[in-house]
Structure formats: C-alpha cells, structure tokens
Amino acid sequence: MLLALLSDIHGNLEALNACLEHARTAGAERFALLGDHVGYGADSRGVMEIVMRLAEEGAIVLKGNHDDAVEGPALYMNDPASAAIEWARSSLNAEQKRFLAALPLLVREGAMCFVHASAFAPERWHYVDSPSAARSCADAGGGTYTFCGHVHHQVLYFATREGGMSAFQPVPGSPIPVRGNRRWVAVVGSVGQPRDRTPAAGYALFDAPRALLTFHRVPYDNLAAAGKIRAAGLPLSLARRVELGV
Amino acid sequence: MTDPFAPGSVIEGYTLGERLHAGAMGDVFRVTHPAHQTPMVMKVPRFGAGDSAENVLGFETESTILPALTGPYVARFFSAGDLTRLPFVVVEFIPGESLEAIVQRGVSPPPEVARLGAALADALHSIHRQDTIHHDLKPDNVMVRPDGNVTLIDFGLSHHARFPDLLAEENRFAAGSAPYVSPEQVQRCRTDPRSDLFALGVVLYELATGELPFGAPATNAGMRDRLWLDPKPPRARVADVPPWLQEIILRCLEVDPAERYQSAAHIAFDLRHPAQVALTSRAEKSQQAGFLAQVRRWWQARERGPAEQARDRAPLSSTPVIVVAVDTVHPDADRHAAIRRATQQILSASDEYRLVCVSVLRGFETPGEPERSSFSAADPHLDHLVRLRHWADPLRLPPERLSLHVLDSSGTASTLVDFARRNHADLIILGAPDASQRGLAWLRSAASTVAANAPCSVHLVRLPEGTRQDAFARETGLSPDDLPQ
Q: Hey, which residues does B457 pair with through a beta bridge?
C-alpha cells in the first residue's frame, strides 16, 4: 500500500491540493500528515477542512509547533510567524481548534514512527538537521523508519554500520530502495513553504511492501497562494517565501 | 539450523541446481523457476557470526543497485531475498568466460586489446549513463560472452548517484581492488565515474603487457603510491604495443581525473578508430619519469590534497559524442555554412565533446572494410576526407576533439544511424531538405529516416526560407565555399 507523507502544509491550500492530486494519481491509498497544517499561509481554514476529512478516512495526523501555538502563544516565534498564528486563530472555527488541540505528537505503527519534529523529546520541537540529530530521533523513535518534517527540506538519513547516520540528498521523483535491515529517518520536506529556492511543494511516497521511498516536488499555483497571503494583510515576507521558495 | 541453500532445495520458488562456485564470500547455484525461461544463478552470501562486515555491506549494495540497472552489459536481475532473513540474489546466468581467463593466457595482440577494451568501455558507458559507478573493474569482474560483448559482474562496491551510498562513510571498507583502484578512490572519493576509466586503463595495460602497471600493493603506504607513481610505459614492456594504444592506456592512467578521458564513450571511440587517436608525448614515452620528475609528482600529489567528491559534476551530459553528417558529394555552400553554424553553437555549450564528422558515400561498397579514415594516396576516399577537413577547418578544433570519417554504404540514413549507435553518439546533426520540399521529398530524405530511427537526439539544420544565396554569390555567381569538383 502506497503511503503519502505530507508535512508543513502551513495553510497553503493550493499546494496541499496539488500534492494530494499528485499522490492519488501515483496510487496513494493512505495519508500521513506530519503537522504544521496551519500558520504562515492564508488558508488555514481551508486546509483544516481537508485535514479533518482525511483524518476521518483514516489518515495519520500529527501536531506541529504551529498547530500547538494556536492554543497558546509560542514565545519563541518571530513576528511574521506570530502574526500568521494570530490570523489562523481568528480564521479557524471552534471545532477545528479542538481537533488541532487533540492531535498526538508521535504515532508508532509497526516498523514506522511518525513525528513532526524529532522523536527525541517531540514536545521540544528539535530540528532533525544533522546526522547526529537524526540518530537521536531514530533512537527515540525506535522504528525502522522514522518520518518527520519541521525543517522544510527533503533529506534522507540512513544508519551506517559504524553506529552513526549519514545524510543523503534525494533526487525528486527517483525511487530509493530503503531496505528494512537498517534504520532510516526521512525528512519529507514542506508542502506549503519550501525553502530551498524551489517553490514546488515537497512530499514523499512510501511503498512499504517494496521498500521504496520516493521524494517528490510538485509545481502548483504558488502565486495564487502568495496572493492570498498579501490579500490577508499578512507580513510580505511570508508571501515572498511562497513566491520564491525561500 | 541446517543450511537452506543446497542443490535440490526450493527457495521462494527457485529450485537450486548445481553449485557452480563455493568461495569465501559465498556460493553460486544454478537455479530454475517455472515463470522464467532465462538460465539463472542464485548468489548466496556467506555471512553470519564472525563473517566480515564487508561481505554483508557489499551484498546489500549490489542487491540495491543491480535491480536498477538495465541493458546488455549487466546480468539481468530477477529477485532478492530478505537481507535479514534469507539473503540471496537471483540473476541471469552469463555464458562465456571470465576476462581473467584471457589475461591468464598471456599478452593479447593490440587488435584484441582494442576489441576487448572497446567492449569494456561500452559496458562502462552504459552503467555511467545509468548514474552508476562500478568501482571494482578488474578482469575477475568481467564476463566475456561468446559474441564478444562483455558483462560486468559484482556491484558490491558500486555507487548509484540517486541512491544513498551505503559505503561512503564506512572507512573500514576497502576502496577497491588494490591493483586497479584509482588515486581518488584511495582518497575515498566515491562519486567520480572517471575512477572506472582509470581501472579500465589498468586492465588495458594488463591485457597488452601481461603485467600490472602498479603491481599489487598490500599496504596502505603502497596504495598511496597511486597518487603520484608514473607507470612504466607499456611499450617499454612490450615493444609491439603501438603508439596509439600506449596513448590511450596512459591517458586512462593519469593521476588527475581531469587529464584522463572524460567519458568511456570517447575511449571506445578511440579504440575502434586507432588512426584517429590524437597522439601526444604519452604515445612515445619509452621510460618512467626519472627520479626528479617522480619526486615532483609526489610533491604535486601532496599539494593537491584530498580528492574532492565529484558529486556536482555531470560528466556525461557535458561530454557528448556529436556526429555531424556533411554531404561532400554534393557540396552546397549555404547548407554547409548553416550546418557549421549550428555545430558551432552546440559545441559552445559543451566542455568535453568529441565531434565526429561523417560523409556517407553511396555505391562504393568494399566488403569487409566499410570505413576508411586514414589518408593515403591510393585511397579513393581521399578527396572526400579533404572536403570534410575543409568543412571542419573553420571550427578550429584541437585534434583530440575532432575525427573525420568517410563511410561507404548503400543507404545513407541507415549507415548514419548504425554509426551513431556503435559510437555512442549523443547527438546527430544533419541537413534537412528545404522547407519547400515537403511531402514525399521529406519522407524520402535521409533527415526524416535518421530522425525516426536514431538512438539519440537529432538536430536538423534547415536553411531559412529566402536565404538561399549570400550577397557575394548573388553578385558573382560564385561561392568561395564551393569545392572544386
């Protein structure tokens, strides 16, 4: 069964729809949404409608730090991020807020572990941005495969025989054999706000029976998403990020 | 626990037959499967408590990369068992003999070295095009099929650019086989396909002289000699080695990858067209560098520092073989100039190209000798070679980038397409009929047939409408580009 892994949608409905369509065309039958559904973007409400529908259909849905900040202010956030959370808070309905508040930080299922940031102290939102961070994430997650987001880049970490982990930069669209005899940590990238100078939305597809993981980049109407951010009066830097992928 | 792998047992649908090989690294069985007609073998690694990690990693690497490779130069992959439970791979059985057996029989004559070497270069080019570096090319890992083609085996040290490199940070792991390993592999660079071209140079050297250029060092210090040691020239060992073959071998064995051939396709081309090899001082070397020169090489190696990982270079897309068809039978000044302009534009976007100019003559069939490319007074093709050279002259290309070929054929298009396929062309440039000649004239043209059947991209050059004659030709009725008939 093909599992689609989507993270850091950040209120970008256009990007989410493009990824879902891409994943369904590729044959995805199940979805895992790794958190930060809201924040930054202008359409948190529209995104949450889809997220909640997917959850009803059996999707794995996790809580990210922006989702968490909807309930209570996050003091560590910078001004644009706080402004966007404020906007999300005002646009989400009570049911959507209750849904976000009840989301888990970490889900384990068989050989797989899902988390927004790092499986090591998930509530502290550590970035998995180095082989050593990936190793503590994999150790804490305990599964053969750990899937996470939070850093907005696509990276695949794999265990080496010498005990550490190595980083690999995946080539979008190219299936990678990820055999179960070693541990893997996949950082699946960001659907709604990629920051590698490529605006195309990022997500990944995991084919568990064949042990193949494919990272994808999906072009979508990012100018429309950026236009909504401008129209909402959110900080211009957030619109630029979506326009340029930075 | 009894060994599940024995003749007669059935593993995931495969019935094990004769044990073809039992070695320290594992066993090889003939296998059959009701769903497959192809003769197959099952490789079973030997690892468990006490077995080396190298064996496990090599097996994991091979069974990851092999399924991704296609083409006639690798054993077709059928199936792999679960690495943690029942490790095995099933691949196509390769008939023929190991290249090692040929090496053991002694020095091969230069035409045979060139033939085997070109077949090997074909195989390397095929896997390099698939983003894979073999990293362990040696006669033991090459099967020579009865038809003369070769198949590469043992991808246990290989690197695939789109897969995580399981060996990259495993420093206890050998970088390659000591006699064949490239200088940059010694420095643990695993991302440069030109490492395979170095190993190919060692194999060519071995075939041509019966000796290994660097011996078989057994220590790390011995391996580091690879970073500077100048091998004894092949002609100093076997006087019969022709200069062109020494040129090719020593160019493959350059310490600095930038000084080697940049693509296996270029090596295959040179081995198939000895007369077209641009000879340098390498061809005439009669002894190793002297003591002082060796000291200088050693010092330069120190200065150079560690080899850089070559991840970002894209050698194959920037090292094209470009075939340009020039009609020397019906010289047409405007068309020739237009094809030259197009060629110039294409070359300006490539770093390490090889431009192959071809003229196809019809009706000059000489059985068994379809191609003439050397100058000699008695050569009936000389006139056309001269015209080809004249066409190429304004491009001002260095000799090692250019070669000229007059081909005999009964069909222009099929000859061009075959030539392009044999020589790994990345692009064919040729003239198209004028825009006025649509319909049947287009369908009958060489351009349409080549475009339909070429193994690569085709660039058709058409004269823009209304530019048939330049001003000079209009005034004088003569063209300075016109060749005397």
A: B427
**Contact yes or no for A171 and B161 at CB 8 A:** yes
What is this model's ipTM? 0.85
List the strands of the sheet with B321-325, edge to edge: B371-372, B402-409, B354-362, B321-325, B427-431, B457-461
Taking the mean position of all CA atoms in its chain, how far away is CA A138? Answer: 17
Q: What is the pLDDT of residues A50-107, one digit of tens each?
A: 999 999 999 999 999 999 999 887 778 888 899 999 999 999 999 999 999 999 999 9
**How crowded is residue B352: how many other Cβ atoms within 10 Å of its Cβ?**
15
- DSSP code at position B230: P
pLDDT-based confidence at residue B291 (cuts at 50, 70, 90): confident
Torsion of CA B353, B354, B355, B361, to 10 degrees: -150
Of residues B115 and B312, more confidently modeled: B115
Nearest-neighbour CA in chain B from A145: distance (Å): 15
Average pLDDT over residues A113-135: 96
The Cα–Cα gap between B431 and B425 comes to 17
pLDDT at site B187: 87
CB pairs under 8 A between A and B: 43
Which one of A162, A176, A182 has the shortest CB-CB distance to B163?
A176
Written as one string, the DSSP assignment of A197-223 is S--SEEEEEEETTTTEEEEEEE---HH
Name the helix (H) or strand (E) containing A228.
helix A222-231
Q: What is the DSSP string of B92-145?
A: E---SEEHHHHHHT-PPPHHHHHHHHHHHHHHHHHHHHTTEE-S--SGGGEEEP
Return the pLDDT at B469.
52
Q: Which two tokens stand for residue B410?
A: 């009964």
The partner residue sitting opposite B169, judged by closest CB among A160, A174, A177, is A160
Residues 6+ apart with CB under 8 A from B372: B379, B381, B385, B406, B408
Q: What's the start-to-end Cα distance of chain A, in Å?
A: 33
Token couple for B473? 């030709």
CA-to-CA separations, B3 to B20, B86, B177, B367, in angstroms, rounded: 17, 11, 30, 58
pTM of the model: 0.86
Measured between alpha carbons, how far is residue B148 from residues B114, B143, B414 in Å?
A: 12, 10, 23
Which range among B49-63, B116-130, B306-320, B428-442 shows the weakest confidence by mean pLDDT? B306-320
- A179 closest CB neighbour out of B83, B165, B170: B83
- Which pLDDT belongs to residue B370? 47
Q: How many CB atoms lie within 10 A of CB B371?
A: 17
List, in order, residues 6 or more apart from B363 with CB less than 8 Å away.
B410
B84/A180 Cβ within 8 A: yes
